[in-house]
Inverse folding.
DNA sequence: TTTAATGGCGCG
DNA sequence: AAAGCGCGCCATTAAA
């Protein structure tokens, strides 16, 4: 149903899911794939990487690999610990706090969509975030032309796929595939979306034009992200570069913000020498801490203030906090 | 035995 | 020919 770059028949998840409608084997294969992925990558490997001195797993953060300015975690990668499935979450449950401490997770809510609102200056998107609305719900209300409180689960799910797809420059083809709908229907959704959020459409066109003119795009702070293939002769790679030009300012600005947050939190912890709390991980829009019981209250109060205050955008930055005895419970 | 390429999939 | 951005790591296979 689909070919790999080398010309072989693809057996990826999409293909097997489609085949599973007609045959029993693909479903079994998918089950085996997901379980063996969890076993080989996490369950078998992570225990072997415990440092004998600390009794812990220590990752490395590379600051100069990701072109958008994100950190990248390796050996082991702790930025791709499972969370999306029940089975996977059992692995996350194994990340536990010391006796007497909790794991605290502080993550930016909808950070890239908020940045898109700021960069695009789209009035409806700015308003939605200023009113602290459920953004997928409010997008659903716009594209389905209904009331905020009459949005169905299904409508919200559609809007969510559209919202995330847009951040990445998704096409009609991609949207129709990921929603399993006709291309004409997908085309209608996108058209309606851009009619309701014209600022977003203009932002995307401007990002491409800017990149073509200068060879780079910029984050909110003016950091440059070079897109060399934006004027290349290979049409396919050029199209990919155009999508990167749309995405890079958002992902790059989010990367800038969380780095500033890490610095702000570190300085605050250093200043308050009595605190035993430790910042132990970063997962792109999330900071993870190990917090003694008697410090949870102060962290719950101070972290949002510190992280939300690193920059003044035209929308509020919102930080959600979760606390638990393990990393999964902290979400 | 090590390295590289491939296809696939975990996360934000 | 591809149609969704950014990563790192797994098993498998082939080459060095």
């Amino acid at each position: 149903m689909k070919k790999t770059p080398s010309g072989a028949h693809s057996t990826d998840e999409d293909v097997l899911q489609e085949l599973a409608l007609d045959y029993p084997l693909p479903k079994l294969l998918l089950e085996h794939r997901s379980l063996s992925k969890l076993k080989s990558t996490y369950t078998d490997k992570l225990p072997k990487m415990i440092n004998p001195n600390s009794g812990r797993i220590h990752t490395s953060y590379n600051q100069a690999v990701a072109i958008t300015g994100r950190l990248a975690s390796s050996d082991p990668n702790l930025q791709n610990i499972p969370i999306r499935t029940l089975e996977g979450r059992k692995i996350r449950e194994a990340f536990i706090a010391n006796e007497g401490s909790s794991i605290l997770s502080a993550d930016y809510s909808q950070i890239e969509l908020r940045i898109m609102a700021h960069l695009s200056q789209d009035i409806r998107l700015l308003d939605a975030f200023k009113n602290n609305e459920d953004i997928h719900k409010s997008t659903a209300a716009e594209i389905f032309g209904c009331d905020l409180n009459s949005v169905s689960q299904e409508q919200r799910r559609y809007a969510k796929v559209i919202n995330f797809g847009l951040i990445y420059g998704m096409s009609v083809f991609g949207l129709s595939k990921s929603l399993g709908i006709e291309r004409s229907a997908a085309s209608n959704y996108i058209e309606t979306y851009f009619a309701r959020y014209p600022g977003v459409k203009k932002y995307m066109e401007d990002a491409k034009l800017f990149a073509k003119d200068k060879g780079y795009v910029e984050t909110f702070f003016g950091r440059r992200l070079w897109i060399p293939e934006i004027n290349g002769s290979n049409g396919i790679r050029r199209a990919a570069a155009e999508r990167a030009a749309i995405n890079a300012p958002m992902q790059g600005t989010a990367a800038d913000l969380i780095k500033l947050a890490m610095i702000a939190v570190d300085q605050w912890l250093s200043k308050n020498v009595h605190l035993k709390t430790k910042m132990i991980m970063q997962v792109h829009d999330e900071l993870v801490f190990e917090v003694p019981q008697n410090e949870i209250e102060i962290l719950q109060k101070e972290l949002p203030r510190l992280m939300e205050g690193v920059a003044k955008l035209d929308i509020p930055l919102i930080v959600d906090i979760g606390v638990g005895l393990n990393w999964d419970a902290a979400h």
User: Anything to note?
Assistant: The CA atoms of residues 16 and 26 of chain A lie 5 Å apart. The first strand of chain A starts at residue 60 and ends at 62.
